[in-house]
């Protein structure tokens, strides 16, 4: 389990999702997005995560095409995620947003489509649209992002389909253990965005001490910690050597004590917006 970059977790509908992937949040449309995706595929990544609001789906699509051409892999070998934005959560708008994302990416389907934020009064409509896409077999799996326990309970009250994934901000300063436990109970896979806290943890002394012991980087220790906690993780980088380095985490294991020490760093501290208090 979790012995290589291609290892997968089985979602609650039987779909296999890689434990490790590339995120492209805040990667500009253009060569950076194209190349990071292409390099990731070339170096063994099988999962790419983007979103309509990132404004880089066209470049991601180009990177996917170039990566497949370079490696001889097929579309079915990859796991591609995108997300519907808050302004398009009305039922019909969300269905149209899915088509628009496919068109920009140049794909026939997505492996995972997420409601990006729990926009009050709107996210249940968005979820209904995702259920329709799923029932029509237009998408392999559906889920949510940034949902807290009360948002999930609200959706589950009248959902026909339990979300397969909840993608949340998750790192050693924001461990969200209660939310993670709730998701496990409901068989919802937790996925980490901003696992490295946008670089803010890369000189953290406890993490440095653990990294030195394993002859690894702090980033590698955090990403390994994610996997050992059964959390899918999607670090972002636009540098080829860093894309390779981030994925070099399958040749060591953190001890239980080290895992606990990392949990003890929690400060409930976010680098992104608070899902209970955002205005976009």
Automatic annotation (TrEMBL):
SUPFAM superfamilies cross-referenced by the UniProt entry: NAD(P)-linked oxidoreductase
State the UniProt keywords alphabetically. Answer: NADP, Oxidoreductase
Instruction: Tell me where in this chain the NADP-dependent oxidoreductase domain is found.
Output: 31-264
Q: Does the keyword NADP apply?
A: yes
NADP among keywords? yes
| Family statement | Belongs to the aldo/keto reductase family.
Name listed for the protein in its UniProt record:
Aldo/keto reductase
The organism is Planococcus shixiaomingii
The organism that produces this protein has a lineage beginning with: Bacteria, Bacillati, Bacillota, Bacilli, Bacillales
């Amino acid at each position: 389990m979790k012995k290589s970059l291609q290892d997968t977790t089985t979602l609650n509908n039987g779909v296999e999702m890689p434990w490790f992937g590339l995120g492209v949040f805040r990667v500009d449309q253009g060569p950076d997005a194209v190349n990071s995706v292409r390099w990731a595929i070339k170096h063994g990544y099988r999962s790419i995560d983007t979103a309509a609001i990132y404004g880089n789906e066209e470049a991601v699509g180009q990177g996917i095409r170039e990566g497949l051409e370079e490696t001889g892999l097929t579309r079915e070998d990859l796991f591609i995620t995108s997300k519907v934005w808050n302004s398009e959560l009305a039922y019909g708008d969300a269905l149209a947003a899915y088509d628009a994302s496919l068109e920009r990416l140049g794909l026939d389907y997505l492996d995972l489509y997420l409601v990006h934020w729990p926009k009050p009064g709107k996210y249940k409509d968005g979820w209904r649209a995702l259920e329709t896409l799923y029932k029509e077999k237009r998408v392999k799996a559906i889920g949510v992002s940034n949902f807290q326990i009360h948002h999930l309970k609200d959706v589950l009250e009248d959902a026909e389909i339990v979300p397969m994934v909840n993608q949340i901000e998750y790192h050693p300063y924001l461990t969200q253990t209660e939310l993670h436990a709730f998701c496990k109970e409901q068989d919802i896979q937790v996925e980490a965005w901003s696992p490295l806290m946008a670089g803010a943890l890369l000189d953290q002394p406890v993490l440095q001490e653990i990294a030195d012991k394993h002859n690894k980087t702090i980033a590698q220790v955090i990403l390994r910690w994610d996997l050992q906690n059964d959390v899918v993780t999607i670090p972002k980088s636009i540098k080829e050597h860093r894309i390779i380095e981030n994925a070099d985490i399958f040749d060591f294991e953190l001890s239980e004590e080290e895992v606990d020490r990392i949990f003890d760093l929690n400060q409930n501290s976010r680098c992104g917006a608070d899902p209970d208090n955002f205005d976009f």
